[in-house]
Design a protein that fits this description.
Length: 706
């Protein structure tokens, strides 16, 4: 059992919530997956067919590609001639109006030659046809070349370039004035626009009927696959023709009774696949990391990751965008490794990659490449302490992914040099993998965003917080120099212990630097900051002194909140004394008032006790380092007894019952502290004195002469 997997009381509600998590997540992921004929979109040209032999179960046509169908439809559109009806009554009406205008005594004052010119010109224009400008624009947008103009039972084809609009008819009349030796100025007295009206009317019914007849002439297929014909066999290279046949086969299934059954089977298969993976993931957390199950932030991060990556993968596949290799899948284990642990990062990454692979038709290369990249990301970020590690990590992940994909290409017989496009390496995949590695560089700013959203704390943040030049630590060094030195000593010792027992060294080091910042409120009341032997506690009662000592926890928490320290650092301040007792003042009070009942609550820290291994390490090291200062003689025996007595007392008081530290860890911590304290407080060798009656002359350098 994992050291972090302290058994917890489970109720039916806990299991119900886990079951609900599995069901809801399964339904969402399956809903995101491609279904039905979308599978045809996942075929990759130039790759071998990874499945068994596929034989046609029935006859079906080989449908032409959509691009070919559209090209043929565009060709028909250009050849299509919409119907327009010629309306002779429009010409008769306008010519009558023109004649009346010239014959009227109050009408147009122009010579008869102008009337003859206009009558002949209007007849010519109306015989060719005037079309409404809106209808002309529609024809031009549809790339229509000519129209079918009919009158009665007769029809003729007229190019739209020969048709007039009201504007072009007006311009045509004026353009012919010079050839008839007529004056433009005189003709402008007449408003010709009132005699120019469209005489071509669009016949929607006949045009629609004609278009449907032409569309029916389109042949959507380019051949037929007969029942029993071999479509493709395992290892065959997928070509454009193969893709078209497979797409046609999938679409043909919709016309057979087996299509609905096959769709149900596909859906059931996807549900089972996703459900099994999620069950395995939940079982892992129950067996090894129950502490994450009770942490809402951890559950939320993993849940979002399980949804985001399949969603993005499905979108890329459904819309046929570039390649899924462009997605930086290695960013997921990177974040989980930094905020949680390596094992959880790997298990979650594998589960996510397997879920994403369900959207692909040939997932083997994808799974091998992405799992390898995730492993490298986890390994390279096992201890993140500086920004430059992101660059190294991205480089290592990219290189490993390229090598794995290259090995897959070589395995399938593809090479860099070759005349046959089917057996030549597709360089685009290597470009996508490289670009994915570049996208990994955005992990650092995204990490800062996740820290704010979920309340996590990365090692980079811890390293930044452990800089002693930060304002809070700098103020501590000036206000309470003794406490600052004590914190530095505790930080170094705690980090050594954490490294030995496999805990988070950087976390406990940073927590140790801040654990006593509350002493800045009353530094003179703590022994390490008292100068010249002045002890202000002599002026106070034991209860008052204890209150000041206990107060440094509350003051420290308030300072942490004001300075926006992460919650994980604030917890070190709260737990480094746990529910301990300020024994010096409590025992002193009991001795001074033996007949009175002394309330131990007045001398007890508010806690809580440590809940993590790192908090337990800090409690042990803090107590041992502080007590070691009171030793009168530093020998191997006295240091060993001090360490054993201090830590065994904490164990006996039950301080570590709520954290996952083991007896072996405690034993290792004792041994490390004994060795380090012996090194720190080593006894110096006394120089021997000469047992002679006469002192040897002393040289100017201070050394004795021979």
């Amino acid at each position: 059992m994992s050291r972090f997997n302290k058994p917890q009381s489970r109720t039916w509600k806990n299991y119900l919530l886990q079951a609900l998590f599995i069901v809801v997540t399964t339904l969402i992921i399956v809903w995101l997956l491609p279904h039905g004929d979308n599978v045809a979109l996942h075929l990759e040209k130039g790759k071998p067919w990874p499945h068994g032999r596929l034989i046609a179960p029935y006859d079906f046509p080989i449908l032409k590609p959509d691009t070919v169908i559209q090209r043929e439809r565009d060709s028909i559109q250009r050849a299509f001639e919409p119907y327009f009806e010629m309306m002779p009554e429009v010409e008769a009406k306008q010519l009558t109006a023109l004649r009346e205008a010239f014959q009227s005594p109050t009408g147009i004052d122009l010579p008869h030659a102008y009337y003859s010119f206009l009558e002949a010109g209007l007849h010519e224009i109306y015989s060719k046809g005037i079309i409404d400008v809106n209808d002309l624009q529609v024809l031009q947008l549809q790339n229509t070349v000519s129209v079918n103009v009919y009158q009665g039972n007769e029809s003729i084809t007229i190019p739209i370039a020969q048709l007039y609009t009201e504007k072009s008819a007006y311009e045509h009349l004026f353009a012919n004035l010079d050839s008839h030796q007529l004056s433009r100025q005189k003709l402008q007295r007449l408003d010709l626009n009132q005699y120019l009206w469209p005489n071509l009317s669009y016949d929607e019914g006949k045009s629609k009927e004609r278009w449907e007849d032409m569309e029916r002439s389109l042949i959507p297929s380019s051949g037929v696959v007969v029942e029993g014909q071999n479509i493709i066999d395992r290892g065959d290279i997928i070509t454009d023709q193969t893709i078209q046949i497979l797409n046609s086969y999938i679409k043909a299934k919709n016309d057979h009774n087996v299509s609905k059954k096959a769709g149900y089977l596909m859906l059931v298969g996807q549900l089972l696949y996703v459900c099994v993976i999620l069950i395995c993931l939940v079982v892992y957390f129950n067996l090894f990391r129950q502490d994450y199950l009770v942490n809402v932030r951890s559950v939320l991060l993993i849940w979002i990751a399980l949804l985001i990556y399949p969603l993005v993968t499905s979108i890329f596949v459904h819309h046929n965008w570039l390649s899924v290799y462009l997605i930086p899948y290695a960013m997921l284990p990177l974040f989980i490794r930094v905020f949680m642990d390596s094992r959880t990062a790997f298990i979650t990454h594998v589960a996510t990659v397997l879920l994403c692979a369900l959207s692909l038709r040939s997932p083997f290369e994808f799974v091998a490449t992405q799992i390898t990249a995730g492993l490298i990301a986890i390994y390279s970020m096992r201890e993140m302490s500086e920004r430059s590690q992101i660059i190294r990590m991205a480089s290592m992940v990219t290189l490993s992914a390229l090598l794995v994909y290259l090995s897959m290409d070589f395995t399938h017989g593809r090479s860099f040099l070759g005349d046959d496009a089917m057996t030549r390496v597709d360089y685009s995949y290597y470009i996508y993998i490289t670009l994915s590695g570049v996208l990994l560089l955005f992990a650092y700013p995204l990490m800062a965003l996740l820290e704010r959203l979920f309340g996590f704390t990365s090692n980079v943040t811890l390293v930044e917080l452990s800089n002693i030049n930060r304002p809070l630590l700098h103020t501590l060094s000036e206000t309470a120099p003794g406490t600052f030195q004590h914190s530095m000593q505790v930080a170094n010792l705690a980090a050594e212990v954490a490294n030995k027992i496999g805990a988070k060294a950087q976390l406990v080091r940073t927590g140790a630097l801040y654990h006593d910042i509350g002493k800045m409120s009353n530094p003179e009341y703590f022994t390490e900051n008292q100068l010249g032997g002045v002890n202000p506690h002599k002026m106070l009662s034991n209860k008052e002194s204890a209150a000041i000592i206990l107060r440094h926890i509350v003051d420290g928490e308030e300072m942490a909140d004001r300075n926006q320290l992460p919650r994980v650092i604030r917890d070190f301040i709260s737990t480094h004394h746990g529910r301990g007792v300020a024994k010096y003042f409590y025992i002193s009070e009991k001795n001074e008032h033996p007949d009175e009942d002394v309330d131990i609550a007045d001398y007890t820290y508010k806690g809580p006790n440590p809940s993590t291994t790192e908090q337990a390490i800090l409690m042990m090291v803090d107590a041992v380092e502080a007590t070691a200062r009171s030793l009168t003689e530093y020998t191997e025996e006295s240091i060993g007894q001090l360490v054993d007595r201090t830590i065994d007392g904490q164990v006996a008081d039950g301080f570590f019952t709520e954290c996952p530290i083991t007896f072996r860890d405690i034993y290792t911590a004792k041994e490390v502290l004994k060795e380090k304290l012996k090194t720190i407080y080593h006894t110096r060798v006394s120089y021997p004195t000469l047992k002679t009656e006469k002192q040897l002359p002393v040289q100017e350098t201070g050394s004795t002469s021979k």
